[in-house]
Design a protein that fits this description.
With 269 residues, the protein is of the alpha+beta class. The chain has 2 domains: 4-165 and 207-231, Gcn5-related N-acetyltransferase (GNAT) (Aminopeptidase, 3-Layer(aba) Sandwich); 168-205, no CATH class. Helix content is 22%, strand content 22%. It has helices at residues 4-15, 43-53, 117-127, 149-153, 180-187, 218-228; strands spanning 37-41, 65-71, 74-82, 101-109, 135-140, 157-160, 168-173, 176-178, 201-205, 209-214. The strands form 2 sheets. The protein has a 7-stranded mixed beta sheet, with helices on both faces. Strands 8-7-9 form a 3-stranded antiparallel beta sheet. β4, α3 (117-127) and β5 form a beta-alpha-beta unit. It is globular, with a radius of gyration of 19 Å.
Length: 269
């Protein structure tokens, strides 16, 4: 199963969706990754890419930082960081993570970007986050075909599903997924009854797997790693199918042994 986000990129590439009055303007760009620039961008700019390429198609309810990668001045991809909402519930107190976490909640690259674009963007953007964020987390959605290949390339640690309980109820409005937080805000409940209060459809989905990456001093990284050491699992892999077509070069690919400058090496366990 291909990741849903990959299918979006493939579809846009097939349709030449980014063609404008200048035609396939990206073909003339220098796409050498070493010459790209990664810098912080505003929410409105990030939204232009997320709405086109990210599988949820919407920005998070709360955004802390957005970063973009530029090829000769042209925006090729973005990442969006948000708060870890469950910090307010004391969930991370026992790990020593409270007040130090930030979550990579959205990320997408245009179909014309080269191999390694996404990992370069993530690694570079993490270096630019405020120093108080020592733990960067990201989740992967099995229902969207995600296994976290890009996080593996960026040396994140995989811990799988951490939350207990059954499946999560998700809602869809006007063809787009609505978060539980947004549902609660709009309808006063995040349960199935919300579907009776508005134009919502709902479905049940598997809980998300989680990845972690640590920043800061070596001592801080070792401390944070030790807190999840017994939870770390082997990276999930996507099963190859003999019927799969060759994968074209594009932002969805990740080169072996890191496609971008190393953000950090694994802390010795």
């Amino acid at each position: 199963m291909k990741a849903h986000q990959r299918l979006i990129r493939d579809e846009r590439a097939a349709l030449d969706a980014d063609v404008d009055l200048f035609g396939r303007w990206w073909e003339g760009l220098d796409k050498t990754l070493a010459k790209t620039a990664v810098r912080e961008i505003d929410i409105a700019t990030a939204k232009t890419v997320i709405e086109k390429y990210e599988w949820l198609g919407t920005m998070p309810a709360i955004v802390l930082h957005c970063f973009g990668i530029f090829f000769a001045g042209h925006l090729g991809g973005v990442v969006v960081y948000s708060p870890e909402y469950s910090e307010n519930l004391g969930k991370w107190d026992s790990y020593g993570y409270t007040g130090k976490m930030i979550v990579l909640t959205r990320g997408a690259c245009a179909h014309w970007t080269p191999t390694g674009t996404a990992s370069r963007l993530i690694c570079a953007s993490m270096k630019m986050l405020p120093s108080k964020y020592e733990i960067v987390s990201a989740t992967v959605d099995k229902d969207a075909g995600e296994i976290g290949t890009i996080y593996q390339a960026c040396n994140f640690h995989y811990v799988g599903v951490m939350s207990k309980g059954g499946k999560i109820v998700s809602f869809v409005r006007a063809g787009k997924k609505v978060s539980a937080r947004q549902t609660k805000r709009d309808y006063g409940t995040r349960g199935r009854g919300a579907a009776d209060l508005g134009a919502l459809g709902f479905s049940e989905s598997e809980r998300k797997g989680r990845y972690f990456c640590f920043r800061g001093s070596r001592a801080a990284q070792k401390k944070h790693l030790a807190a999840i050491r017994d939870r770390i699992k082997p990276y999930p892999k996507r099963a190859a199918s003999p019927n799969d077509a060759p994968v074209p070069t594009g932002a969805s690919q990740v080169e072996p042994l890191m496609a971008a400058p190393t953000f950090q090496k694994h802390v010795e366990q």
